[in-house]
Amino acid sequence: MLSQALILCGGLGTRLGELTAATPKPMLPVAGRPFLDHLIQQTARYGITRIVLLAGRFGEQIVAAYHGRTLYGASIEVVVEPAPLGTGGALRFAADRLEPEFLLLNGDSWIDADLTGFARAWRTARADDPTLAAQMLLQVVPDVARFGSVTLEGNRVVAFLEKNAARAGTAGLINAGVYLLTRDIVDLVPEGVACSLETDALPLLVAQRRVAAVTAPEGSYFIDIGVPETFARVQTELPRVRMRPALFLDRDGTLNRDAGYTHRVEDLDWMPDAREAIAHANAAGYYVFVVTNQAGVARGLYDEAAIASFHAAMQEQLGAIGGHIDAIEWCPHHVDGTVDAYRRDCDRRKPGPGMINDLLAAWPVERARSVLIGDSDTDMAAADAAGLRAIRYRGGSLLDLLKTSI
């Protein structure tokens, strides 16, 4: 399962003038929070658990804001290059932190793309051709002049065309700023030397037909915040694009069979069509959130690491069919717990609405169209306390129930 993403944050942002005179471009505010925060949340929602931010000028600001934190289920590390190294050099500088396969994203652009589907396409393409070293996400735009363009043969990238004002008004495919790479790509980059991944390293792989591509669905929202006009637009466009309804799901007894304090990965047994229901909600444009009481921690039966492992297995098995859970909240507390650190009454524990309210506060959710599905009275009460519509799951196909509910 793909678990690591790197985000390029070292660009100078000179086209934005005074806006970036003392602020890294990804840290510029968009709808009241840094653009980078939106990007981290968007990346982590696809099950990415480790994010590395590759910073440059004013990197100390990114360190202060993110280094060592865990956000949206992902641990954050910041690596600051010692001098401007370009996109390829920054990647090479972080070589010792790379997993065998990882995502790489531009820190100054947004594409509303399905990263689970992107990773599945990579698995398929690599099975057909194990020599592949990279995959790019492409976007169709009506005017390629400002971006440069990409030429394909089948699903292989065969050429990059530079920005050219003479091509103004020409539609085409552009690099959307999302890559899936293998770790050995850094072997193409000299250590300590400034170079560009796009113009120095990737063309070498393109010449060998080792770069695959996936084109984002028509109508996918894409924006590069690198010029004043698009930075102004993103302030209203991105909040609108990100706002969507949410499906809140109970876990034990709704998604997986409840054997009593279920926590071992080998005991993960999905309810009928539960995985398919989640994938259906993903495709319908819903956030999918899980809210689960886990009093077994308070009772000393297992620890929070076991919960995290169980949820990682759920994400991996969902990814195999193209689904994902955007965020999982659990409450390990219980007033009668035997572990002192967890023995307390807690509003996050259902029937309290705390977990739901925390998700509503953290994510841009259209509450009126959102729904919670669970199998117990406590689920119904939690939804009511949070002001959400609730539907009782009584067994059978969760997919069939969902199709009549959203």
From TrEMBL:
The keyword Repeat does not apply. CDD domains: HAD_HisB-N, NTP_transferase_WcbM_like. GO terms for biological process: carbohydrate metabolic process. One of its GO terms (cellular component) is cytoplasm. It comes from the Bacteria. This is D,D-heptose 1,7-bisphosphate phosphatase. Keywords: Carbohydrate metabolism, Cytoplasm, Hydrolase, Metal-binding. Belongs to the GmhB family. The lineage of its organism: Bacteria, Pseudomonadati, Pseudomonadota, Alphaproteobacteria, Hyphomicrobiales. Transmembrane segments: none annotated. Residues 5-237 form the Nucleotidyl transferase domain. SUPFAM superfamilies: HAD-like, Nucleotide-diphospho-sugar transferases. One of its GO terms (molecular function) is phosphatase activity. InterPro entries: HAD-like_sf, HAD-SF_hydro_IIIA, HAD_sf, Heptose_bisP_phosphatase, Histidinol-phos, NTP_transferase_dom, Nucleotide-diphossugar_trans. The keyword Zinc does not apply. It is found in: Cytoplasm.
